[in-house]
Structures are given as C-alpha cells and as structure tokens.
Amino acid sequence: MGSTPAEVPCDVVSDNRSGLGGGISDVYGEDLATLDQLVTPWVSSVASGYSLMRDPRYNKGLAFTDKERDAHYLTGLLPPVVLSQEVQERKLMHNLRQYTVPLQRYMALMDLQERNERLFYKLLIDNVEELLPVVYTPTVGEACQKYGSIFRKPQGLYISLKEKGRILEVLKNWPQRGIQVIVVTDGERILGLGDLGCQGMGIPVGKLSLYTALGGIRPSACLPITIDVGTNNEKLLNDEFYIGLKQRRATGQEYAEFLHEFMCAVKQNYGEKVLVQFEDFANHNAFDLLSKYSTSHLVFNDDIQGTASVVLAGLIAAQKVLGKSLADHTFLFLGAGEAGTGIAELIALKISKETGAPIDETRKKIWLVDSKGLIVSSRKESLQHFKQPWAHEHEPVKNLIGAVNAIKPTVLIGTSGVGQTFTQEVVEAMATNNETPLILALSNPTSQAECTAEQAYTWTKGRAIFGSGSPFDPVEYDGKTYFPGQANNCYIFPGLGLGLIMSGAIRVRDDMLLAASEALAAQVTEENFANGLIYPPFSNIREISANIAASVAAKTYELGLASNLPRPKDLVKFAESCMYSPVYRNYR
Ligand SMILES: O=C([O-])CC(=O)C(=O)O
Ligand SMILES: [Mg+2]
C-alpha cells in the first residue's frame, strides 16, 4: 500500500479524546467524559404495549399469552386468538410458499426479521435447506442488485466518505453495544456480480443472519456494515433510486486512510475480541487489508479463507471416496483471485503438513488459469503479487481447455466469477483423463456458476463428484439421482466465528482454518458418501457448526491465542451451550 499510513497505530488516528482514558472498558466515554465532551444519550427502558409489539427483539405477535397481554398493556391491541410459535411458523411457511418470485420471498423474510426476530430465526433454523437460497445465494444477489428499489428499513450501519474523521461517532449510533461479529463490505465485488456499491449491504446482512441461524451468535451481537467509498458502476451512478454516494470509488491513499480509520475505530469501540469478517472486497484491496490487519485485529476474509476452508474440507472428505490422499492430485483452477489463490494456498499448506514437503514444493501440484491463460513463470513479472507463487515452469497456454489438456488435472475448480466457462469440451476432457473427476463450480450466484450440476453429470456420464457455490437441485441422469454438494463458505464461517468468540480469540491463524476444514470433513457420514456427497446436509448445520467451533477453539487455546480462561473441558458441549436459541421467552 505504498505511502499509506500502515505504520500509524490505531490509537493515534482515532483517539480524539486528547489523552483521556476510556478506550475499550468505557467505550462510550460516559464515565470519563468531561463537560466539554459529547456523549451519546442512550436510554433503556422496559417496553410494553404498542412499543413492545413494534420491537422485533421482543415482539411475539399472536403468541403473546393472555397473561402477557394483561401484564404488558397489549389487551385489545391483538385479536383474541393465541397461537404457538409452531403454528406461526407453519402459517409463515405456507405464506412464503405462495410466492413464486424468489425476491418476493426474500422481502417477506426481511419483513419478518424486522417484525419478529425470534420467529424469523426459528423459521430459518427449522427450514434451513429451503430458506438458505432465499436469504443467501442466489436470491441475495438479486436483492443487492435491486436494493435501492426494495429498501425499506436500514438493516445495518452505513459508513460513507461523508463521515471521514468521525467514524467512531458513527459506530456509537448503533443501538447495540455488545457487538461480537462485524461483517463488512465495500461492495466492490458482490458475489460474482461485480461492483454494487452501497447496495452490497444485503451481503453483510445475509451473512450475519447465518451467523445467528447456523452458528448461534446472538442477533444483537452482530453488526452488518457497508463502507461507501463510491461506486464505478455506471448503471447505479445513473439510477435515481441508488442509495449510495454518487461518485467514483476512492482509491489509493484516500481509500487506505478511510479503511484505517474504520479499523481503528472498531477496535477502539469494541475492543480486541470483536471479529471482523471482510466480505466481497475486490481483489486489489482484499489481500492488502487482510495482511495489514491480521497482525493487529481479529480478522479474516471469507472469500479468501472461508471459501478455502470449505473447499479443503470437501477435498479431504472426497479422498475417502477416491481412496487417495491430497498429495496424489493435480489441481487446476479457473480464476486466480481471492477464492482461487486462497484455496490453492490452503491446499498447499495441508499437503505440506501431511507429507512434510516444503510448501514451495507442494504448490507445484496446483495450477491456476486467469483471463490471460495458464499462470506460468514467463508471466511472473507482470503478475499481481498474490498470483506470483503460482507461476510454475511451463510453456504458455492460452486458455482453460489448453490447460486441461496440458496439465491433466484430477481436480478442476472454478473461482472465476464468470458463468458457463466449464464448457462441454472442458468437462469431457476431465472425464476422459479421470475415472472420477472432481469438479467444483464455485462462482456465485447461480448465473455465474462455471457449469450447472446437470451439465457436470451429463458430460461426465454421471462419473463426476460435483460441488457448487450456489445450490443446485438433485439431477436425474440415466435412471439415477445425483446429489450435488454446496461448497459454500457458509459451512465454515458461522462455526469458525463461534469458535473464535467462545474462546476469546484475539487473532486468526491458518491452523484454525485447517482445524475447521478437518472438523467439517469429519461430519460427512458413510450415508452421505453413498449419495456422492462430500459435504454433510445443511439440516444438521448447527451440530456441524458446534463441532467446527470446538475444533477452532481447541486450536486457539493450543496456540495461546485464547483469552477466555480457563479452557472449558468439553468444547463441543460448551459451544452448544453458547448458541442462541430462537424459542420465545416468557415475559413476567
Ligand atoms: O456469499 C456466498 O455465497 C459465497 C461468497 O462469499 C461469495 O460468493 O462471495
Ligand atoms: Mg463473499
């Protein structure tokens, strides 16, 4: 980042309290404020009556009991019937299924989240396989594209360049104080859909819904943030309903300084143990932000590390089906950005740990193709830094099919963000070279998948093990049903986050990602394998997350990076006991 303020410590940048203490123990500066300092006048009071029904955290709708209605001045504000949460859930699922347009389902679910939070999470947890594609990929992608038009209530915190110099103040406007997880985007690379600017907010909101539903993090501890430094999307710049700054993106020093102010303000406001998940930043910022802040903050990048951990888990599991080890494979990637190089690096690390070979050697089993063809040593000088470790000795190869024929990979992984790039010729070549080709089409949403599940099974005559980033329905081919796996980072980040939080982690390390991969791979059952699956079904995801959390926490303790001491004996039980349950509470 050149002349950016990499060396400026956080306290110098964001502590505008001229030497007064406070910091993390008095984050709102109330105790130590002097008369000339401004404090945020937060009040808390017991809600009742109309305002209780309007508070999504406590509203239960028709499930308020008669006793509660009497005690809380609700009598007459609701029709007389009292419904259980289960009946409410059945009714809502029935209503949701009436919508045929996915975006309508998305909007109905967002309305529910804003109306009755516990019911929203109950629905999501109990119907995860059906509702994941609505609150998450692929529908969330469409929601982001149309976010300006469907915008009703803000669901997270917007920090735009207009707030430069006072980001700490903006953070204090957020009503919840006990924040444990922040998912932040700058909207520059939303899924495989490109720059959606401020409308990328749908992604942090969706990811954090999954933190709660799949990983059991309390909703009030989750904070979605969108950083608005402008957009280069002409369509949005000319859209009268666009909700963000109508200016081109800030870059270089201006960008770095703004992000630095943000990262410092976050640490100052929430302390050392708040987890910051970077999401859907463009390559040119993602790698720099991760390397810059991983030594001073609890951060990870979901697109680089979360995706890597999930894919590695699938590959580890697949070895049981194939009867091989990872080192026996040759890997070829289409796409050498965050996901591609992130996955490649974690595979190389894992093979290195398994075989004892140096990582420089194990990287040689892995090849990447970008928009200019195979990454080879003759291109090294012109490559971005994150691609350079993959520039192996080979003559230039122009395109993917050329690379498949030259390298003869056993595993083909798509992380290009460009749909339909695994052509019939490419997939057939994989099938010619391999008895059981492993094909992962990871780009999101569905429209950007490198090939569909049906294409993968048809073109390999049912021999492929196939996984994708966005969900595909089971495929009938030649009288047999094939179940595609969803190799999406949502298998990992909720459990990883829970493990980090419950152990009081202060840094993320690659060994924790490896621990998460191994824990996920261990959850795949014989029955799953028999169905051709290399990931367990989402229906057990909370149990899976608890196991991932326990493994991550164990590694955190082992590395001396845990601050929640002493270490609980049974980490799986401890993880389960930490998980938020959306069942209604009784009110006095
Ligand atoms: O959001 C998802 O489905 C996976 C992901 O991180 C991405 O594609 O950027
Ligand atoms: Mg992402």
Molecular structure report:
It catalyses: (S)-malate + NADP(+) = pyruvate + CO2 + NADPH; oxaloacetate + H(+) = pyruvate + CO2. This is Malic enzyme. One of its GO terms (molecular function) is metal ion binding. The chain is an alpha/beta fold and about 600 residues long. The protein has three domains: about 70 residues, Hemocyanin, N-terminal domain (Up-down Bundle), CATH 1.20.1370; about 160 residues, 3-Layer(aba) Sandwich (Rossmann fold), CATH 3.40.50; about 190 residues, Rossmann fold. Helices cover about 45% and strands about 10% of the residues. It has 25 helices and 14 strands. The protein is globular. The N terminus is likely disordered. The protein binds oxaloacetate ion and magnesium ion. The site of magnesium ion has 4 residues, from helix 15.
CATH third-level topology of the largest domain: Rossmann fold
Structural domain count:
3
- What shape does the CA trace take? globular
Structural class: alpha/beta
Instruction: Give the termini separation.
Output: 56 Å
Q: Kindly report the name of the CATH homologous superfamily of the largest domain.
A: NAD(P)-binding Rossmann-like Domain
Strand segment tally:
14
Side by side, the strands of the main sheet go 8-7-6-9-10-11-14
Q: Which residues sit in consecutive blocks of at least 5 with pLDDT less than 50?
A: 1-6, 11-24
Ligands in the model, by name, code or SMILES, are: oxaloacetate ion, magnesium ion
User: What is the CATH architecture term of the largest domain?
Assistant: 3-Layer(aba) Sandwich
Total helical segments: 25
**Biggest β-sheet description:** 7 strands, mixed
- Mean pLDDT comes to 94
Radius of gyration: 24 Å
CATH class of the largest domain: Alpha Beta
